[in-house]
Design a protein that fits this description.
Arc Repressor Mutant, subunit A, four-stranded antiparallel sheet, rod-shaped, HSF-type DNA-binding domain-containing protein, WH_DNA-bd_sf, stress response, phosphoprotein, HSF_DNA-bd
Length: 248
Amino acid sequence: MEATNNITISSCCDDNKGLLEYARKSTPPPFLLKTYMLIEDPATDNVISWNGDGTGFVVWQPAEFARDLLPTLFKHSNFSSFVRQLNTYGFRKVATSRWEFCNQMFRKGEKDLLCKIRRRKAWANRQQAATAAATQQESHDEDQRSSSSTSSLSEYNTLRDENKRLKKENGNLSSELVSMKRKCKELLDLVTKYANMDNDDDDDDDDDEDDDDHEINNNQRGPLIVKLFGVRFEVDEGERERKRKRES
């Protein structure tokens, strides 16, 4: 009786193992299923899509793919890690000028073939390992270029904003300079208009007035010399003559 029970238990265990093995083989690996879903989505065709004949797929924009799409399904944004996963499932990089990958069982419109793709064994040949290492290095270089590009863009934006600020300040200073020149000219015209230009008497004593702001020199007949803010100006003789006529 005991022997019969043992045989029955053993048979049940074997059946369960068989069911688990069947379920495992009939269910695609989550990584492959998620990748297939990304490629099939027409909204992401500008970033990742099938190649021309549907026997592989192309990651057109690795930086955008890592930044925007990977986190939505794989919980990370590392393009190199994604490439390593592809290598473990037997994908090959088939183009040197772009990120194009192929696997005989990974084809457009044949989703049922995903169940036949399994992870590679540890005894994969050395050539495959070398190819995987080269692909990983390329993906690492791509990550570096992407990071460098982002840093350069940030520096460019900073310099552009600083340049705009300096241009604005320069414009303000130019406006202030023009305003100050205009005010200085108006002040000089005012001093010239109301300055004492009566130098008719040659026998009069010299009358010099010197202060911090202006100095009028009437030592002798001739052009009137006005000193304003330390700068000497000669008043037009015609203006003096016209003023004398008006006063007379």
